[in-house]
Amino acid sequence: MATRTDRRAPKRGLAGLGELLFGPSFRHGVHPPEAKGLTEALPIRRMPFPEEIVLPLRQHTGAPSRVIASVDDRVERGDVLGVADGYVSVPVHASASGVIKDIGWWPHPSGTMDTAVRIQVDRFAPQLTRPRIVPEWRGLTPDQVRKAVQNAGVVGLGGAAFPTHVKLNPPKETAIEVLLINGAECEPYLTSDHRVMVEYPERVHFGIRVMMQCLGVDRAVIGVENNKPDAIARLRETIPEDLDIEVIGLTVKYPQGAEKMLIKAVTGREVPSGKLPMHVGAVVQNVGSIAAIAEVFETGYPLIERIVTVTGPGVRKPQNLIVPVGTKTRDVLDFCGGLTPDATEVIFGGPMMGVPQPDLDVPVMKGTSGIVVLTEKESARPQALACISCARCLAACPMFLNPSRLGQMAQLGLFERMAEEYHLEDCMLCGSCSYVCPSNIPLAQMFALGKAGLRRAQQRAREEQAEKERLEKEAAARDQAEREAAQEPARKEREVA
Predict the structure, then answer these.
(1) Which of 200, 215, 437, 448 has the lowest tally of Cβ within 10 angstroms?
(2) In Å, how far are 133, 297, 299, 359, 451 from 136, measured between CA atoms?
């Protein structure tokens, strides 16, 4: 069992007063309108199965799943359609019973086309999973727990969709001291995690119990922003007596839910540049992912549905819904009464870090925490003006970067310099800089393009290096062949003699 980490020491001075009044937090950040009133008090309800389910094989960070199903196959809810294609990968399961009618290209929420399995849902099927063995977590080794989580297809449900079993397997030389549960949900509009904590607190605690045993830690902390007092109360009153779980109310500030910001607020530790939470003794998991882990060991069900907040001024009936993974966006919006006449933009995720969707046929993914519909008023794009060097972006950046200078580098296409001199890779694209910029410069979008350009440059450099090594190997082989050919007459003369 890992050594218990010390409780975070309170701050002094004005910072300590702010923490006393508003809860722990981090330096910098912004305060966008919360806009959670549309759905924060609405209970979770289940959406009916649509006529068609579309399941992309790329729904998580890492290698996409490898399809093993075929067209015209009859599948039941929970059947495996694609297996994990590597360690950082998870399977994809059928979220409804029916017949596979196609496997091919389909619009992906990332804006690209990707391979997807299309299922014609059987409207007369009971939509039950096949009988399955429920893992008894008490008798499992950590490796077996991780394998069960991977086989269930569980990924981070906060947006990044990083395979959960990888987080449960830190290197042996890295001591994990505390498990942090991210219940901040700092993105405007979104309330799915809020409702999970209010309606399923026992499930959250059970998931924490399983993760604590797997990681070998004896302390867990749930961080929840103070704008969710009902969630904080429900979590505190249901804490199991035999577990050391602390529920901390955090300052309402964006991006409080970012891993590094949560660690700083709860433990006072700072994750160094280029390092991961495990390097400061912490593992961070989203509260929705914790509930998904609990469901695996309660029912044996894989991750085939998730809670999605459908909200925004552009949707007629905002709701918190249990949605089968693979449901098309238009089907979800139709169930919520459709769009208002002035709706102009549909976003997967929140308005700060979410991805606008150009096609309503894109499916809900494992990592889709919300569908936010904005009107022309909210989605207007003011003209970008020249930077006035006001330094508001520096004061907002939670990573203490220089967004102004990074933006200048991005405009010049100096992507490698952005990474080497200005730490581009530390940017988490939270959008705080864009939010406060009086010149309306789309800094976060420019940094996203910069990261993409950097990846292309790095890939090109790897390809050039591989080509150079190939040519050098071929040249060495030719030289060796020429030397052997030059030595051949002398060798024959020696054989004759």
Answers:
(1) 448
(2) 9, 7, 10, 42, 43
